[in-house]
Each structure stands twice: as C-alpha cells, then as structure tokens.
Queue: 2 jobs
Job 1
Amino acid sequence: MSRILPYPLLSAALVLTWLLLNAPPTPGSVLLALLVGLVVPAVMLALRPRPVRVRRPGTIARLTATVLYDMLRSNIDVAKIILGLRRGERRTGFISIPLDMRAPFGLSVLSIILTATPGTLWVQYDSHTGRLLMHVLDYTDGEEWVRRVKDRYERPLMEIFP
Amino acid sequence: MTGPDLPAWAAWIVVVLALTGAGFALTGALGLIRLKTFYERVHAPTLGATLGAALILAGSMLLLSLVEGHLVLRDTLIGLFITVTTPVTMLLLARAAAHRDRTEQNPKAPPEP
C-alpha cells in the first residue's frame, strides 16, 4: 500500500484486462497497460474505496474449483427440473441461514456465488442478526443446504477475507 | 476469416460447444414459461448466464485462436463481467419481489430472515 500503488490488486487487474483486450502484446500496448494500471488507481484514490486484503491463494484456487464444479452440477440439475426429466415430487422453499461472516467483501463474493449458481437465490441479508434468507429450487432438506453453504463457501471465504 | 483454414475436427468442436451452450440458454428461457412462481422463475435464466455463456465463449475462443493463429483470451473478460454483473440484477429483483409480497401480505411471501 505505497503511494505509487495504492491498490495493487486493482492495478494488476487493469493491466491484465488491457493486455487481454489488446492481445497479442506489443511494446506499445504494454506501456499503455502499465500507464492505465498506474493512473486509474490514483484517480480511484479520490473515491476512498476500502482496500481489499486477500490471503491464502491456495484456498482461493480450491474455492474456485468447488464453485465451478457446483455450478456445472446445478446447471444440469436445474435443466433436468425445467425439462421435466426429474422423477419424484419437488418442493421449493425459503431457507434461513445464520452466517458467521461479517466481512463485506466476503459477503459480496458469497452473494455472487449463490446467485450465479442456478438453483439457489440470495434474497435478503440482515446485517443486525447476520441471517441470510435464501430461496432454493430443490428443497430436499433444509439442514443439508445450511451445511453446504457454510462448509463449502463460507468457511473458505472467511479464511480469504479476514 | 476464411472457411477452409479451419480443420474439420475443430469446426465440429466449435459447433458442439456453441449448440450445447445455446441449448442450455434455451432451456433457461423455457424455464421462464414452465416454472410457476416468481422465485422459481428467477433461477431459470441463470442457466444461460453461466454454463450456456461459458460453452459459447469456449467455442468462440477456440475458433478465434485457430483462425488468428495465437491464443485469444479476450472472451474470458465477457464471462467475468457477466458473472459479476448478473447477480446485481437478480438481487434487486428478488428484494423487490420480497418487499411487494410482504406489503401485500401475500400468503406465499418470504419469511423474515
């Protein structure tokens, strides 16, 4: 968090985005990418966003793999439900989950994970009680969902965003 | 971009990826008709925004990489921004629906968290 690089993650993301858009990289585009990575975060400084601290790259990689696998599986599950290929009766319902996580960035990532996964929908989070209201398309067992969200997503996110 | 530059096996992979992706997106659209309540319907379009988009983008990246002769990763940015922005709309819709159901005292209104 030096004066030149107030938001190192943002700078790195901007440089990478610029290079991806202008692939294959030439000396000129690399120079422009570095310039964008330096100037834009300096402008962002005026907005005083809260700095993001992430830890444990290994946990990030494992969580990413878990989320990608769950997304694939739930895509197929939801497609089956829509096409009427699923046997047996299906119930939908709301589930209330008590969350231990309070870090705002961790909560936003959790909301993206739950909403982007078909079959689960983040409806409401109460910051006073720390409870999350979620809608699930296939309500097999409420406790099973609570454990799934807490073990698979919340615990790694709490390690990543302290 | 000319057709004959692309070997047949690559063309088949691209076609399969694009059609499977489109199939998932279509299933999501069907879900909007087939599912009954609002909260169920919100789940359906996510199919097109996640696996559907991922498969179509994978096909597009493979095609462009082969045609341009080097690895093209631009399309990952489309995937990234779809993933980050779609939940914002979904969250707003869900919150609005929950608020409406509660003020109308609908029997199927969501409980307080």
Job 2
Amino acid sequence: MLVNEIINAKDLPVMEFDGIIVGGGGAGMRASLQLAESGLNTAVISKVFPTRSHTVSAQGGITCAIQSDDPDDDWRWHMFDTVKGSDYIGDQEAIEYMCSEGPKAVFELEHMGLPFSRTEEGRIYQRPFGGQSKDYGKGGQATRTCAAADRTGHSLLHTLYQANLKAGTNFLNEWFAVDLVLNSDKAVVGVIAFKIETGEIYYIKSKATVLATGGAGRIYASTTNALINSGDGIGMALRAGMPVQDIEMWQFHPTGIHGAGTLVTEGCRGEGGYLLNKDGERFMERYAPNAKDLASRDVVARSMALEILEGRGCGPNADHIFLRLDHLGPEVVHKRLPGITELSKTFAGVDPAVQPIPVVPTCHYMMGGIPTNINGQVISVENGEDKIIDGLYAAGEVACVSVHGGNRLGGNSLLDLVVFGRAAGLYIEESMKQGVELKNASHDDIDKALERLNKLNASTEGDQVAVLKEKMQQNMQNNFGVFRRGDLMEKGIDELAKTREEVDSIFLQDKSATFNTARIEALEMQNLFEVAEATAITANERKESRGAHARDDFTERDDDNWLKHSIYYADTKEVSKRDVNYRPKTVQAFQPMVRSY
Amino acid sequence: MSAAAIPVEHIKTITMSIYRYDPTVDKKPYMQDIVVEIPTDKDIMVLDALHLAKNQEPSLSYRRSCREGVCGSDGMNINGKNGLACVTPLSEVLKRGKITLRPMPGLPVVRDLIVDMKQFFDQLEKVKPYLITKSDSPDMERKQTPEEREELDGLYECILCGCCSTSCPSFWWNPDKFLGPAALLQSWRFIADSRDEATEERLDDLEDAFSLYRCHGIMNCVSVCPKGLNPTEAISNIRNKLLTREKA
C-alpha cells in the first residue's frame, strides 16, 4: 500500500486514552509510570522502542543531595549551585522544587531496581561534578552526583521501562506523533500519529497530552545527541501557536570525542581527570583558579575554544584538547568509567588508561524549551501575562520549567527528567480525579492538524531532506556556536529564511506505507528547522553574554535589560521578555552575583 | 557526513550489498549493490556508510538512534555475523571493497534491514524483567554492598539489541517456547540482585523443557554480543540454581 493521498478527519480512526505521553525517554516514562500506577489508561507514543531513547546515553549521573558521600549535604546548597550555574535566569521556585523533591525521586528509582554503584556502607555512590559546592559556594567542591558507573542514563531508562511494564502502561512503540490537535478553545485534545510499521494514521484523543520528546541537538553539525533528537515536541508546539523560552541557550559540552562527537562524561573530570593544551598545560587553572576543570560547562567549553583559537590546540591541525585520565590508574578508569573506556577505544582509538582522549566542545543540551510551571502545564504569554494551555504538558529537555536557565549543571538533566516527569504525572492524576472537561475537536480542527502530513504525503516535487539538513546544520554550527556575533548571526538568519519555503515543501519520493524512514526524516527535518530558526532569531535578540550564550559584540552580562527569559513565537517570529521567578517558597531568593569559579 | 565535503584524492568507492524488501512494492526480497564513496584518510563505521547509501537511495530502511553502541537499534547481520552497525569499523569488515548487510536472522522482516522484534520482546516480558520486592521500601535506598552490586556487572549493561537471540539456533527453532539468551540474561540479572525477593517464583517459571533447557551451549550469543556480555554463563548460573534448589 502507498500513502500518497490527502486523508480527511472524517475517515480517520480514533484511539482514546486518559493520558498520552509523546516520547519514551526518562521524562516520558516517569510521567507514564505515575499515571499508569494511579489506574489511568495511559499510553506512551514513542518513535523508537523506549530503551532506544536518548536518555540511554547519559553517563555520569544524577545530581541530588541524598547525603550519602557527605551526611551534612544540603539540598539548598544544590539549589544555590543550580541558580548560579543558570547565570541567574533559572526559575527559583522550580529549582527549589527540583532540589528538595530530588531525594524522594532518586530513592524511588532505587526502589524500582536502578543498579546504582555503591559505597562501602551500601549506600548510593556519589561523585563530584562541575559547578558543585558545599555551603553556598564557600565550602569547596561537593560530591553530589549519584552514579551507576558511567552508565547512569542507560540504567535509569531501562529501570523506568521495566517499572512501566510492571505497571501495565500501554506502549505505542514505533509510532510517530505528527502534530497536536486543538479544539475551538485552543485547548489540546490529543495528537495525530501514525504507526511506523504500517503507515496507518490515527487521531489519538486524550484530555492530557504530555510532550516529552527530548532535545534537538541535531540542528548542529557536531553534537553528542542521538540521530533521533529532532525537536519533535518543539516543532509541534510552535506550529500550534505555543511559545518557546530561552531557546537561544544551547550547552556545548566540553568533552565530545574529536571527530565523532560522542560524549565523554564530566564524571571523568569528577574522578580526577583534567584537560591539557598542546604545551601540556592544565590551562583551566588559569581560567577558573578554584574549580579548575570542574567549573561550569559553559566556562570550560569557552576556555577550551579559546585555547584552540589562540593556537594551543593539540594534534596536527591544533584543533582539539586532550583529556588526561591515565594518572588515575587502570583500576579507577576501568571500574568507574567502563563505558568511556569502550567509547574511547571505538571512536578515538585510545585506551584512556594509557593515552589521553582527544576532545572538543560539542553541542549537547537545549536549556530552553516549551515554558511550563512546576506541574508541567504549558504556559503561553499573552500581553505579558502567563496563561495556562489546557490539556498540554511538557517535561524533560523539551520543557523549560526553567531549572537550567542559561547553563545546565552536569547531572541535573536526569534529575529534571524524573522530578518533573513525576510532577506532571501527579498533577494530571489529581486533575483527572477532579474531572476535566474539554470540548471535542471538530473535523475542521483535526483536518488542521493533518495538514503538514497530508502535504508531505501528496508531494510530487521539491527538495530532498539530506541536502536541506546539511545546509542547516552547517549554518547553525558556523554562526550560532560557542561564540556568537551579530553580523554572522544575521547572515545565518537570512540563510534560514531563504530555505524556509523549501523545508515546508519537502519532496517525499518514497510513498510506501511500510516502515518508511524517509517519511520520518522529512517530518523530523521540519521540526529541526523550527528549532533552528527559533534559536537563531532569539540568539540575535539577546544582546548580552550570559550562561552558554557568549557574544563577541556584547561581552558582558546585562542584568538591567536581560535578567529575563526570552519568549519566541513562530507565527510572528518576534522575541519578547518574561520575568524570571525569584520567589522560592521556603528559602530566601539567591540574588545575582558575579559568577566566578 | 557528506561525501561531497571530502577532497577527491581521499575518496575510494566500496560496494554495499544490501538486503532489500519492501512488501508494499516488492514481490520478493533481493540483494541490491549500492556503490558509495568513502574517505580513505579515516575509518568510518558501517552505520556511516549506510547513511551515505541512504543519501543515494532514500528508500533504504534501517533503524538507528544513538550511533554509539548504547541504544541497541542497529543490530544487523554484517558479512554473516550479527553486530551493531554503529560500532563496527568498516575497515574490519570490508572484504575486497565489499560488505554484505542483511537483517538479523530468525525474525520476520518488516522492510530491508528492519525485523519485527515482537517475539524477542514477548520473551523478555515473560521473565518479569523488573525488580520484585515484598517487604516495605525504606525511606532511603535499599542497602547493597559493593560486592552484591558487582554481581550485576555483565548483566545490567544489556541493550536489548537482539544480536544474541537472533544468532541462536535454539531460538530460531523455538522462538515462542525457548526464551532466548537476551531474556535469560535479564532473568539472571534479577535473580542475582540482592534486592529482589522473587527468586523462587522466577525459578518456578523457568522449570520446563523449553524456556531455559533448550540452550545447548552453542555460544553464538557470546561471540556476537556487542557489549561483551555472556548470556551462556547467565544461563548456566540459572541451571545451577535450579539444580541446587532441587537437592535442598
């Protein structure tokens, strides 16, 4: 069978669930677990089998003050570090919630079976990570990241999948969600999705739709992200008229393997590894005299980029930095970092117990995303006021709640996933008990959500995905990387604008109904493009340097004008500002300070 | 990666002989030779070569996600042996400029290199692949010594790629009755976990002629596992547990 004709809402089969979760990574499966355990008929829609989701690639750990390594550790210190790490545009109510609820969420994971590494006392093993301190930055390096060797994401994702099997969650594995369905009140009442194996298209109806689609690192040419990280949730939200927040804030991880882009955990430096330039100098001592190699990721990535730009890079092309681990001894390297050993051998041809690993700063994480409150409810901003969108939730990397602000601390993404996946689940559970009334979508409403898929399926001419994608990725890499400059960004924005029309009318040559990966890649390309354009326009608007957003033409942080979230809408392509939350419930707010490590 | 970006002097061509079958358009499967240009100045992975082939033939279908050997999407049969395309260097498998790719054997083909994994996952679910506890959970974590935790090394790392079970003749013969190496490795992962409180039930469930005992120690599973795990050893550990239990 071929799928090459327009399909109408009246011919569309419907499936109905109490709650649907789009995305089967850590955030999605933590939310679905909460719903399934509360007896709600819950479905996870995942374009890959859930354990193929990108959470699986997280390595170093989940940061949380569980007081294993240090019995005096305090979640408030973790909160302080996270606020400082965010360069003061993380929402403090959300950070407070994450850091204080964290221990509960981590112990729950352990109870589900997560195989954490252990201390001699039988407790969960913790390691130091970047940007961590004791006593509000005054007590030196903290040791707060809970780890399962260097396979924490893999362990967490598999554990959540196992727990969902136990709880009876419905899995629509290898189903692709295309677009949100909105009713006449602009509330979200489900999604259009198709079963990849057969090409059958459905309207999946629900009163609670959770976007948990993860990041979009594939807008860049070089990224640690999986090939599937195409910002599907961001694309769906922007097309449906929702905003994105702080989308210009992209984290470049200091240590991606040179050439391959695969991640080397910050845990390497946590265990005592350090960075060297071509002169064999531990250059981080110059840039961050106190924290050195364990400064925040934005700081380390910029220092590395500067070393390379100033001619002190390693290798014949002076284009990378060395990460040294051999002094730790084979015992530590192989026991604490077995995954890194494997990856280094495969992708760099080195055994880190003997030779240094060649690394470069590599696109890693999207701090921005769909704005939500701490219940995961999606927020739109109308005339400067927050307004909750009924029926729509977001959690994990796709969301911007915002706990990471301008720069995420290592180990905080896994915590974000479980805390806010759980929070969204808890809120939906409660609201379902109270009763949710949403108008049904009309055929017109559903037809609107079908437009993009119909256009692609019926396409008879146009450009191919591969060419468009490479053009976009190079543009983003060259003009929106570690260092940014107004004139280059404007050039980049122009290039994107010229490609917009082509991306909207991609030619799908292969119309087969059966496991059509060309169709998936075309739909993903359109989502990536939405993220790229939002990033480009917003980055150019934020005329300051803050967190991961470092401008050569505006080198200072500008708290007078930009101690704000950016808000971007795709229909107007305009950027506005939203207040940062400085109202934690149980502690005094942390005020902006000069950020040094 | 794009071939266009590589200088001409650093390019060579290879032939990828790939199993093609799309039930929508093809009456029967066939092998297609796709010639791709690859760089000579660096090694690439089989998956990278597949991307180059797909740029020419967008209808070519295969699964992929992490491209670093941790998600388990791209298990396939490479020159007759199962493995992950993303962590198999082309230089190791290229023979006289040619490489042959087929779907993993023993499971129904959905399209090209994509197999229907339903039987594989059904068998996994049968072993109750989750921690079962009966005592109340403490307020903090359940304690486990480093030595107890070490029992899980070599077990918890499984990525469910299916390379082992689809290379196992016992699984080919009885995919509905013999659980297969991947599921049995998971079974042992929970039996071996000091926190699990369902060992007896787990062993009861395996006590029949097929579920476990169809393993004949062929050890294909061990030779293909891309994570270096040893399902055969896990299976013999379960056998020993069953035997000593009967004596007791």
